[in-house]
Amino acid sequence: MIDTHCHLDMSPFEADRGDVLSRAFKSDIEHIITVGADPQSMLTAVGIATTYPQVFAAVGIHPHEARLANPMLLELLESLIRDKQGNKIVALGEIGLDYHYNHSLPAVQREVFEKMLSMALQYHMPVIIHNRQADEDTKAIVKASGMKDVLFHCFSSDDAMAKWAIDKGFYVSFAGNVTFKKAQSLRDIASWIPDELLMIETDAPFLAPEPMRGKRNEPSYLQHTARVIAEARGVTYEDINRITSVNAKIFFGIGDLPPSEIVYKIRDNLYINLTSRCTNACEFCVKFDSDFVKGHNLRLDREPSEEEIIQAIGDPKAYSEVVFCGLGEPTLRLEAIKRVAQWVKSQGGRVRLNTNGLGNVINERDIVPELVGLVDALSISLNAQDAETYNRLCNPNFKDAFEEVLDFIKKAVQTIGDVTLTVVETEGVDIAKCRDIANRYKAGFRVRKLDSVG
Ligand code: SF4
Fold first, then answer.
1. Could you tell me the CATH number of the domain that includes residue 108?
2. Of the residues 283, 331, 356, which should be mutated to test ligand 1's pocket, given the most ligand atoms within 8 Å of the CB?
3. Is the CB of 325 under 6 A from ligand 1?
4. Nearest 5 degrees, angle CA 112-CA 118-CA 119?
5. CATH code for the domain of 395
6. Of 252, 282, 314, which marks where a domain is finished?
7. Closest among 262, 266, 268 to 310, alpha carbons compared
8. Is the dihedral of CA 13, 14, 15, 17 positive or negative?
9. Quick check: CB of 261 below 6 Å from ligand 1?
10. Domain count, the chain
11. Is residue 368 lining ligand 1, measured as CB closer than 6 Å?
């Protein structure tokens, strides 16, 4: 995991900083971003980052300290940002607005915030934003700045603010307060932030998560926040660890991104990444924006052989299901599906095929009977309530693709039985009408979030 925000420079860590870091790195923490947000703490944070290879620094002027932002301080900040101290300074922050305490006058906070954003743009630095009770002004200033690489740290606003942030493609990070008993509304927000925009942090020494609440917070406690967010999102702790680490690495430009995988685990299922080819080009397809799905790199250099896949699966019984599903359409490799599924079944595993439902046109025959005894369940992307919407959203290579999908659904329900239709929650899709289609065909129905595979 990556603790994307803590204050290792602060006095509570003075006596035992080395022990705190060693506890962190003995737990699941891979990297830490320590944030210096006043003149002295900026320099201390940079000193810590240059001492410990796994620690990086962010520097900026906190809204509380905006009143201190004289030309000399701005010059110091600019020199740090320009120099980056051997790439150990990875963001400008925390900066923003805090109208709760108003330790600096709001007008002064706004002026300094604008200056920081333009400095970040000039030096191509991502920014970490502190926003407390200042949603409207924060939105206006960030929007006017044109800044794209933005992380809202210790998110504590409402639904509307979170939706605004993710619509703009900004990252949202949750701290220990998301674990507090009375923070259900925050947990609700943490449950639907898209995978690719989610991060976690401690904000240590503040906001120790349950069950450590009341103690000095430290990076090794991040696991508690991760577990609560995993539960809110219905995924595992390992999933949150992987998803948020990849996001932090991309955002801050630190560490190594994971290599591509031919099989990958989400929750208790194992997914098989057969191909990146597809006969559709759906406008919501994750592969057009990212190589990553739930922190797994699915961009294949080449398509894996059947033997490679079987070897990578290991014991199929270790998983609830083995699912053919990657960044492409599996039925383009029908023979590989059949061979691998046969092996999985022979080992006592259960097989699901996630498909766009165009396998019959792709293979120029009715393939459903060939799946009997090999595939236990099918998830078929319905994606739309009618042909016009389907063609607009999915850009299929085939004429009459929507009708072909409906025909495939009919045959699959008749022959395999366990069939679920999926739609992605996106503009123009009439979920109620899609559900009606599923009912009509006696198939299950599932609405997927925009980014969600698995
Ligand atoms: S059918 Fe699936 S893999 Fe193919 S483009 Fe659409 S979302 Fe992507």
1. 3.20.20.140
2. 356
3. no
4. 85
5. 3.20.20.70
6. 252
7. 262
8. positive
9. no
10. 2
11. no
Whether residue 246 is found in the same domain as residue 285: no
Q: Are residues 235 and 342 in the same domain?
A: no
326 ligand 1 Cβ < 6 A: no
pLDDT of residue 448: 86
Q: How far apart are CA 382 and CA 378, in angstroms?
A: 12
Clarify whether residues 201 and 271 are in a common domain. no
Which 3 state secondary structure label does DSSP give 347?
coil
pLDDT above 70 covers a percentage of the chain that reads 99
Q: What is the pLDDT of residues 309-347, one digit of tens each?
A: 999 999 999 999 999 999 999 999 999 999 999 999 999
Bridge partners, residue 351, by sequence: 322
Residue 78: which of 108, 115, 127, 51 has the closest Cα? 115
**Residue 257 falls inside a structural domain:** no
Q: Which atom of ligand 1 is nearest to the CA of 279?
A: 4
pLDDT in tens, 392-424: 999 999 999 999 999 999 999 999 999 999 999
Q: How far is the CA of 452 from the centre of ligand 1 (A)?
A: 12
Of 212, 230, 252, which residue is a domain's last? 252
Residue ranges making up the domain that contains 86: 2-252
Omega before 219 within 30 of 0, i.e. cis: no
Q: Name the residue type at position 136.
A: E
CA-nearest residue for atom 6, ligand 1, is 282
What number of other Cβ atoms are within 10 A of residue 425's Cβ?
A: 12
